[in-house]
Amino acid sequence: MKEIEFHTLDEVLDDVVGLKGTPRREALETDFQEFLLGETIKQARKERNLTQEELGAMAGVGRQQVSRIERGENVTFSLFSRLLKALGLSGSVNVAGFGQVTL
Question: Of 37, 13, 35, 34, whose CA–CA distance to 25 is shortest?
């Protein structure tokens, strides 16, 4: 019987997508991070039983902007921060060499 070989996620990504630092890998990681930010907003909105339109009104933006953020498209810190505040949440980003930046 052949022995099963296990690999870490990074090893699989290196092999399938490319090494860290390559354009394709960087694009994948950026897209994934934006997806996670969007999912955070979507889950928090749904937990509060808000529609995208209601959240947009609370944050002073349109429903379409909320929809784009929830899909992980065109995520900006400014808009993400506004949506977090409208949801009663706070967040911070760890910037290497500078420390935590509160959103």
Answer: 13
Q: Among 63, 60, 37, 38, which Cα is nearest to 50's? A: 63
Contact 18, 50 (CB under 8 A): no
DSSP line for 78-93: HHHHHHHHHTT---EE
Could you give the dihedral angle defined by the CA atoms of residues 59, 62, 63 and 66, in that order, rounded to the nearest 10 degrees?
-60
Q: pTM (2 decimals)?
A: 0.80
Residue 33 near residue 25, CB atoms below 8 Å: no
Query: Looking at residue 35, what is its pLDDT?
Result: 94
Within 10 angstroms of residue 46's Cβ, the number of other Cβ atoms is 11
